[in-house]
Amino acid sequence: MNNRRSFLQRLGLLTAGVAFAPSLLTSCEAAGRKTETAAGATAEAAGAENPTSAKAEIKDIGIQLYTMRQLLPKDVKGVIARVAQAGYNDVETYGYAPDSGYWKLSPKAFREVLDANNLTSSSGHYEFGQYMKDGNTDVVKRYIEAGKAVGQTYITVPWLDAEVRTKLDDYKRIANLMNVAAQLCQDAGLKLAYHNHDFEFQKYGNTTGYEVLLQETDPGLVSFEADLYWVVRAGLKPVDLFRQHQGRFVMWHVKDMNKQAPELNTEVGSGSINYQEIFRQAKLSGVERIFVEQENFAAAMDPYKSIRQSRDYVKNTLLA
């Protein structure tokens, strides 16, 4: 596919640390003990608000393979090898179809390519368009079979077609369908996740479609993959979402926003999104997996150099 939209149709915050003024010393021992106790309680509360770095929680750096969509179909084995050489440990798939597999490779054959390069695939984006229209779970079962064969943990809904999300009640119906699909995933030992863009944040009165999805899906069944670029693009702060729905965002898409043209991506660390601030609050999110993604490259930028640059920034700055 030549662009993300056609493919998909087929298919901020302040650090919460608290600075403490030195306790005012008095000659009264009791007052001193009271001050110490209060300071300890405040420090404990601050610790709850200011989780430690994501470093201890995130061991692998993944890439959404849509980043390499111009190259991947032409040379699956070669591209996967170079992704591994760029320092990635995990890949998130896209574009699977029951009749053609992963870029004309069966799930078993694709798993062998990953194994040969010491890569895992913990998540895959799968086309849920027809399921969201008719509720037929047959295709969901096919995705589960493929995901299990590849070794994935998450079957991820990447997009909602415009015709199934025209009003707020549509999101309630979608949430119910997600619960049904998620139960199938759980029964098979997998999990279901939902990946956002920016349309989910459109206001319907005092709420949004995204809020409905978060509230109407079973937290024990449905997780969320926060595309941080699209959250920022929608005018929100990612950590505000983390605070409001702690532990729901088990995966992230980490892609940066071009400073001159916000509709474009750039290498992580080179754009306008303050990722250091976001990563400092990672534990609020519940994040377990992160995937670098870039939907476009600058004309003069080699894609492999680009993904290596983003990976190195994540590894050496954000997770250091």
TrEMBL record:
- The signal sequence is 1-21
What are the alphabetically sorted keywords of the record? Isomerase, Signal
The residues covered by the Xylose isomerase-like TIM barrel domain are: 80-315
PROSITE patterns hit by this protein: PROKAR_LIPOPROTEIN (PS51257), TAT (PS51318)
**A GO MF term:** isomerase activity
Xref: PANTHER family: HYDROXYPYRUVATE ISOMERASE (PTHR12110), INOSOSE DEHYDRATASE (PTHR12110:SF41)
Designated name of the protein: Sugar phosphate isomerase/epimerase
Q: What taxonomic lineage is listed for the species of origin?
A: Bacteria, Pseudomonadati, Bacteroidota, Cytophagia, Cytophagales
